[in-house]
Amino acid sequence: MSEEFSSRISGFYRKPIDERIRIISEKVNLSKEETKILESGGGLSMDAADHMTENVVGTVAYPFSIAVNFRINGKDYLVPMVGEEPSVVAAASNMARLMREGEGITAKASDPIMIGQIQVLDIQDMEKAIEALEKNKKMLLESANELDPVLVKFGGGAKDLELRPIDTERGKMLIVHILVDCRDAMGANAVNTMAEALAPTIAELTGGRTLLRIISNLADKRTVTVKCRVKADDIGEEGAVDRIVDAWAFAEADPYRA
Prior knowledge:
This protein has helices at 17-28, 32-40, 46-52, 88-101, 126-135, 137-145, 149-153, 188-206, 232-235, 240-253; strands at residues 64-72, 75-82, 105-109, 113-121, 157-168, 171-181, 209-215, 224-228. With 258 residues, it is α+β, with helices and mostly antiparallel strands. Strands 5-6-4-7 form a 4-stranded antiparallel beta sheet. Strands 1-2 form a two-stranded antiparallel sheet. A two-stranded antiparallel ribbon has the order 3-8. A hairpin with a 2-residue loop joins β1 and β2 (75-82). The longest helix is centred in the last third of the chain and has 19 residues, at 188-206.
């Protein structure tokens, strides 16, 4: 993409599909082969699908769209979106237009920390078990990082342990969290490998028995914060701003709405 690249495309939705493809291809310098993939509609062949998973009887296709007008951290982006629901892409593009006329979108990411969980059962003395793990934390983290020197080389790797005693219907358990900086990876392979490798040592140190050793599905330490400013005059009728802020306050306070 050239230095003059802009995601602002006026009336993109009004243009025929072949014209949209031409515009996008020129803006992001797609090759002829890549452009042909868009023109063909893409899709997954039955043969490819059959080699990917089991019991294949067909494939499902969804519209592939481009949301325009986005400016994030001072840089323009064309955002690919796949989905069948009408108005979603239009609404995103329209709001992006309003935001770029304000200050654009500002996004900030936390460190990419994922959590590996090691479940420890049958611990006779929970306080002693926690004390033993705290005392050997450095050794455990070093052992985990020996498993993935490439990740460590790029600044990632196991960074810390969290120890969480919990009460369950099957008795008291200790859940050991290994916090892994995964860099640009999703992290399942690295995190699961570390959790599996540390489990025997953790069992020995705690005098307990390990069961599950797996990445957590709750990525609450790997977050992105996004904010924007929009000109009040661009929002619409009088009172619209207050209604939007009231709706935001609801979502901010209530996870059922967030």
